[in-house]
Write a structure and sequence with these properties.
Elements lengths: L1 H15 L11 H11 L3 H10 L5 H10 L2 H4 L4 H17 L1 H4 L3 H7 L14 H12 L5 H16 L2 E2 L10 H7 L1 E2 L1 H14 L4 E6 L9 E8 L2 E5 L12 H4 L12 E4 L5 E2 L12 E4 L1 H17 L3 E9 L15 E6 L2 E7 L11 E6 L2 E8 L5 E8 L4 E6 L2
Parallel strand pairs: 1-2, 9-15
Antiparallel strand pairs: 3-4, 3-6, 4-5, 6-8, 7-8, 9-12, 10-11, 10-13, 13-14
Helix pairs in contact: 2-4, 3-4, 3-6, 9-10, 9-12
Pfam families: Transglut_core (PF01841)
Protein name: Transglutaminase-like domain-containing protein
Length: about 400
């Protein structure tokens, strides 16, 4: 009798088989859950799992296991297989990609999307476009710099508030030749990923002074994340650095987030659609605050920078007391390079409360703002050896 029972159990096990051959077991439950949500499109997702190269099955499984429900119901097998094959092609070709931990490759190189943008098959095209720029690079640092320096001329997209929408996909931005900071960040992230550089979109829903949102890009090198932008300066150096250093971790609107394909500790707040919760994110505020504190200590000690305060008044004749001040957004440039930005204190704030920048001595800076009639105004100021207060006027 016991032999009969053993035979029945053995047959049952044999007939059940492995539903996901060559896929690591840790994905099996996640795949079952994902495929049940996919409805009729489960056929396409199973096709992708079944027909992709055995070397890439974990990549396909990872994407299906963690993709948003909208993608489970829409994405086709060909789209997924193409994306995965070109991601692994970059990993096999470039030394920096070969050296990546699997966890970083899967979550920061392999994904086909950053936020909620339209899903497009950009990877084969971007692999062809940007491989030529990094082909002779010996290190990931060189590759990052090469993509950063060449992306604008390659895709012909510039920042412009007249773009159709903030969350544009790569080809939407390339068709128009313009994008928001979010669209530019998506473009840059995809370009990095196309050549095996781990990248993600980061940003804040609102700066500490309620000046509005901003998004940028982060790249992973040797175990650390660094920030950069579509218009490059250097890693961990950007006009918004001082603002990022004042972010507030516990305040959803004033914190800094980094996007993630797989679930993380929170979601990425999208200012253009606050109802979306499926874009995963890490709260990375502490890293930016700590980085800026260290930077600020360094430049205060170097003897080459001084504090420059900026105050905005209605007219040159009205600047006697706090009531005469106006709140306005001001950006500061040195030549073509933006050094920072902020919002001046208004009439209800303490007279000692002023927008402040740490600027290098003996250089000329341009302060740019918009007056009450919407006209752009520029004020050139020579910063010398002593702390300075710059007074600007709305009229």
């Amino acid at each position: 009798m016991k032999y009969c029972i053993f035979f029945v159990v053995l047959c049952a096990f044999a007939c059940s088989g492995n539903k996901y051959p060559e896929v690591p077991e840790r994905y099996h439950t996640l795949l079952n859950e994902a495929l049940s949500k996919a409805g009729d499109n489960a056929v396409e997702l199973n096709k992708a799992l079944d027909s992709c190269d055995a070397r890439y099955k974990e990549g396909v499984a990872f994407l299906i296991a963690y993709m948003p429900e909208r993608d489970l119901k829409e994405l086709k097998a060909g789209f997924l297989i193409n994306n995965v094959e070109y991601a692994y092609k970059a990993r096999e070709r470039f030394s920096w990609a070969k050296a990546l931990p699997d966890s970083i490759f899967l979550n920061e190189v392999l994904p086909y999307v950053s936020l909620n943008e339209n899903r497009e098959e950009w990877r084969p095209d971007f692999y062809g476009r940007f491989s030529s720029y990094v082909a002779n690079c010996q290190t990931i640092w060189e590759a990052i710099d090469s993509v950063n320096r060449n992306i604008r001329d390659e895709v012909r997209v510039d920042y412009n508030t007249k773009r159709e929408k903030p969350d544009q996909s790569p080809y939407e931005s390339m068709r128009q030749g313009m994008a928001s900071c979010s669209g530019l960040s998506i473009l840059l992230t995809d370009a990095f990923r196309a050549v095996g550089i781990p990248a993600r979109v980061a940003g804040t829903p609102n700066w500490h002074d309620n000046r509005g949102n901003h998004n940028w890009c982060e790249v992973w090198v040797d175990g650390q994340w660094y920030f950069t932008e579509y218009y490059p300066n250097a890693l961990n150096k950007a006009w918004f650095f001082a603002d990022a250093g004042k972010a507030v971790k516990g305040d959803e609107q004033h914190a800094i987030y980094a996007s993630s394909f797989k679930p993380a500790d929170t979601y990425f707040p999208l200012v253009w659609d606050e109802n979306i919760r499926y874009v995963h994110a890490e709260n990375v505020t502490d890293r930016y605050v700590d980085l800026y504190k260290a930077y600020e200590s360094t430049i205060k000690a170097d003897g080459r920078h001084i504090p420059v305060k900026v105050m905005m008044f209605r007219t040159e004749q009205c600047m006697q007391n706090s009531d005469d001040r106006m709140a306005a957004n001001v950006d500061v440039f040195c030549g073509r390079e933006q050094m920072g930005g902020g919002r001046t204190a208004g009439s209800t704030q303490d007279m000692n409360d002023a927008l402040e920048f740490l600027l290098e001595k003996n250089k000329t800076y341009t302060f740019k703002y918009t007056d009450e009639k919407g006209r752009e105004k520029l004020a050139d100021v020579k910063v010398k050896e002593e702390p300075l207060t710059v007074k600007l006027y709305m009229q």
